[in-house]
Amino acid sequence: MSDKAAPLQGGLFQNYQLKGFFLLVLGVLAFLGVMAWAEFHGLSRRWIGPIFLFSIVMGCAALGIVCRTTDPEEYYVAGRRIPPFFNGMAAAADWMSAASFISLAGALYLQGFSGSRGEPGGLAYVLGWTGGFCLVALLIAPPLRRMNLYTVPDFFAVRFGGRWPRVIAALAAVVCSFTYVVAQIYGVGLIASRLTGVQFEIGIMLGLGGVLVCSFLGGMRAITWTQVAQYVVMFLTFLIPVSWLAYKQMGNPLAPLVYGQQLGKIAALEDKLMASPQEKQVQRIYLERAQNLQIKLENVELALAQERQSLQERLRVMRQNDMDVSQIVDVSRELANLPKDAATAREKWRKTIQEDLQRAQPLGGMPRHTQAFQGDPDGTPAEQTLFSQSRLNFLALMFCLMVGTAGLPHLLTRYYTSPSVADTRRSVVWSLVFIALVYLSAPALAVLVKFEVMNNLVGSRFDDLPVWILQWAKVDPSLVSVSDVNNDGILQFGEIKLGADLIMLATPELGGLPYVVSGLVAAGGLAAALSTADGLLLTISNSLVRDLHFFERWRKNQSPEQRVIVSKFVLMVVAMLAAFVAALKPSQILPLVTASFSLAASALVPAMVLGIFWKGAQRAGAVAGMLTGLGVTLYYLGVNALGGFSGSDPRWWGIEPVCAGVFGVPAGLLATVLVSAVVGRWPDRFKESPTTPHQI
User: Fold this and answer.
1) Rg of the chain over CA atoms, in angstroms?
2) I want to staple 82 with a disulfide (CB 3.0 to 4.6 A). Which of 317, 417, 590, 656 is the partner?
3) 204-226 burial string, b = 16+ CB within 10 Å, else e?
């Protein structure tokens, strides 16, 4: 085909895609309208949820079947012919994972704008994740696209030569991507179990079906168009509830423009709650509970035996007196949930003490929403220290998220699908546009939900609480818990605990919207998790099959089509392993995702950026930098997860473990520079740099 014909074909191809896109939008709106009509005419809620789940999963599977391929160029990079508009939309869907869609608004609800004690975050997530795309556009994506690569480890092989840079980069890509995909599959199980009412583990398998069919059959080509469709669902899902809450509270659906009006009202409600005698009573009870558990820790074996004996005696008396069955069941459950041994009891009670001490604070330990940082720069020495640490953690988290964005393998691979380097830059710009449409609404949603909880939910009688609280508690008690701590029959703010992963999913029910909107929101969360899981699983399988050295001898004897087939089966194995880990519920979504950013930033970005822009970067330097950055980050995450040594505080300068990349990145950068500088003085026969920055 001649060069003159290529643009014409691209234009016709793009027009065809635009028509399909508008048909997709109309189809989603029509489906939502039909479901609303069906609910109005009596369709049971027990059917609405499964219908939404089935539609999302089957839609992914259908696109996988339509786009099935064994051609390596199509499977790995979608033929490098995705227009910037759609590539940006797919990248936005790939980027806005379950963390962004499900947990971001929840984190802002719980942490305010600055983050809370021990949990840096707030607006750092919005600023860091969005700002990271500027680094991608300026430093990373265009040079990588110019090299016509398939995976991120390909860059290290081409730039530095030898096998070790590629192998280490592949292992780093697998580690950070696997951590990320576990969080996505956890979100899949959370939503699928809520939509269908099945157990969490079964919900994981139900939602995972669409991921496997799409990724397994069609690779990047199927994933691209699936992610475009999923972005449409996510955008509508986010737009409808936040617009409804804004209209309900302020008479204007443009939430990002008007939610500031509620900040003053929330501040007044916070003052009222902090002065409330009932709230202070709840705080005292939680403090007493923490103190009682602290006494038990002095002799765990004796305290555990006494508690077990007391519950057994209560149960015996209740059965003798033929008391209410529900009360007997409650005591039996409490007895069954007692720790089995002293070590388990010690760990559980220490964790409960921390939770009770937090809820013994004003506002249940949550910061005031508009507070700049924790503590007070003009207060006591302890308050000044807290202020400095809060500000430092805010900046550290923002740094890790920005640099991590520039190093995430599944995101960078997304830009390999552009037709040209210029289109890659346009794709990044479109990604920012589509992400901003949702991210500008996340702080608004957090504010509107907090006002709804403080103004309308708090003060309700326990026997009149909304049904959704009980339903979500059945899915996972960590998502929502309410208890009448002071036995007054009235819900206080300190008596309700909402998890970050619940806020977005429960918004429609909290705002009184029809259940069909709840189904749509859950479907949007499922789409967010599935879209990111697709790209991550493909990245992991490609890294394992294409990049790791122990496949090198096998690759020489196999055709590209056969390698694609092997990639598909490896993808399936990785998906099942990730599902097993997610079923263990290792953590909430946001901390897992944040840790993966620190890993990607530390292991890949320093050597990658220096390899692009510094001619003196050597193979040995890249190896040393990747190992050092990854090692420092893993050490810091691990030692904090284990609680440090000898009971000491394992944090360095008060930096929280999710910000481990703030140590790993400079360590990796310094190691790359120093080792490269040393090797650069060796004779030329000891150096090997097949591709220089000028060639890139």
Assistant:
1) 26
2) 417
3) bbbbbebbbbbbbbbbbbbbbbb
CB atoms within 10 A of CB 554: 12
**DSSP run (H or E) holding 119:** strand 119-120
Residues in the chain, total: 696
Q: Which of 69-78, 99-108, 449-458 has the highest mean pLDDT?
A: 449-458
**Is the pLDDT score of 644 beyond 70?**
no
Q: Give 226's Cβ-side CA count (13 Å radius).
A: 40
Domains with residue ranges and CATH for the chain: 44-255+391-441+512-549+559-686 (1.20.1730.10)
Q: What pTM does this model have?
A: 0.79
Q: What angle do CA 679, 681, 682 make, to 5 degrees?
A: 70
What is the phi/psi pair of residue 120, to 5°? -65, 145
- 560: pLDDT strictly greater than 70: no
Q: How far apart are CA 234 and CA 40, in angstroms?
A: 24
Bridge partners, residue 267, by sequence: none
Residue 461 forms beta bridges with which residues?
Answer: 490
Determine contact, residues 121/107, Cβ cutoff 8 Å.
Answer: yes
Q: Tokens representing 556?
A: 């020489």
Q: Are 177 and 574 in contact (CB under 8 A)?
A: no
> What percent of the chain has pLDDT above 90?
11
As beta bridge partners, residue 496 has 482
| Phi, psi of 151, rounded to the nearest 5 degrees | -135, 165
- What are 104-155's pLDDT values in tens digits? 888 888 888 777 766 777 788 888 888 888 888 778 888 888 888 878 888 8
CA distance 444 to 467: 25
Whether the CB-CB separation of 686 and 679 falls below 8 Å is answered with: yes
> Which pLDDT does position 6 carry in this prediction?
37
- Phi, psi (deg, nearest 5) at residue 638: -70, -45
Provide the Cα torsion 370, 376, 382, 388; round to 10°: 80
| End-to-end Cα spacing for the chain | 27
Residue 322 zone, left/alpha/beta (φ > 0; ψ -120 to 50; rest): left
- 486-509: per-residue pLDDT in tens? 888 899 998 888 887 788 888 888
How many other C-beta atoms lie within 10 A of the C-beta of residue 550? 8
Helix (H, G, I), strand (E, B) or coil at 22: helix
